[in-house]
Amino acid sequence: MKLRILIVISFVLLYIGTYFANKFVLSVLKFTFPTIFQGWQTLVGILMFRALYASGYIDNLLHGKDWLDCALWLPGMITFLMSSYAGSRALATLPLPVYFAMQNMVLVFKATADVIVHGQMTSFYSYFMLMISLMSALIIAKVDPHFDPDGYFWMCIHIVSLGCLESYTHFMQGKLKLRATDKLFSCYLYSFIVLAPSSYFLGDTLEAVGRFQYFYVSHFYVGCILSGVLGVLLNLCSVYLQELKTPSLMLDVGAVQAVAKILCSGVSLTFFDMTLTQTLVICLAINFLSSIGYIESSTHRRLQPNISYASMNNFDADVYSGDRLLGESRQYFKRQELQQDMIRLDLGS
């Protein structure tokens, strides 16, 4: 139990530290070159995975895995890259509370995946909370004093790509032999292979050398190192949280992440500039609370016993077959009794 609490606290602290480091580099230092920044983060991820493997903390990465499983996970790698790239572009212009509120729209994709893949219908309370979260996010975009069309454009791409990643992960659950660490490592590897040459061919490397003025400032390198290292640790901590999820513990990664978003949003107001209005604060509060309400209700619904129509049909078939066997056994005993009566009559005569 203490280990679980420690991992949850570590997840929240890593969540806050990761987004603070990213926000500092992207917004304060204005390092708006996502191919370089994301390429650096994925490189750090690859190196840390190799270091953890060499030290024995992680088993063989992709060792003995079928290449077909890796090929089937290719859409996951692509959507991971798209969500990381678009999220970096959006985070550079959007305040952290607004960014997290917009990111809660991914819950719509999760709800759709639960209905399509697992056949779990959304309850009225969950649907109501989901619609409130969605409507409040749209209102936040309308009343945001820092509204930036480019930032919201990339935020939309981030939401769609992250939602597709969540949906595809649900769809392929149990169909791939890849572990969670294998999937994460393959995403880092694929992203680095794509981003490394793209940073040169798209002109980000030459533009950064000519325009960026903080190349010789130590804060820039500290922020980049922290963003890369903390991001990898955050993803690994999320994997361990998923492995610790049990019905008795009632622990869900989404619920812990929702709490981390609220804490990170509150703390960010003391470090980063943000203009708040009364309407914006109310909409942010409604968005965060409704998201937690939906996550909690969906978690309870998954843990409840689910009797599907198929199981009911099987139950009816079993009852029918049992009645049929009972009727046949009765007819058999009646025939036996008649035969015994006929034998007695023959002996008596």
Automatic annotation (TrEMBL):
Keywords: Membrane, Transmembrane, Transmembrane helix
Top-level taxon of the source organism: Eukaryota
Record field: transmembrane: 36-55, 67-86, 98-117, 124-140, 152-172, 184-202, 214-237, 249-272, 278-295
Identification of the protein by name: Transmembrane protein 241-like isoform X1
Lineage: Eukaryota, Metazoa, Spiralia, Lophotrochozoa, Mollusca
Gene behind the chain: LOC106071621
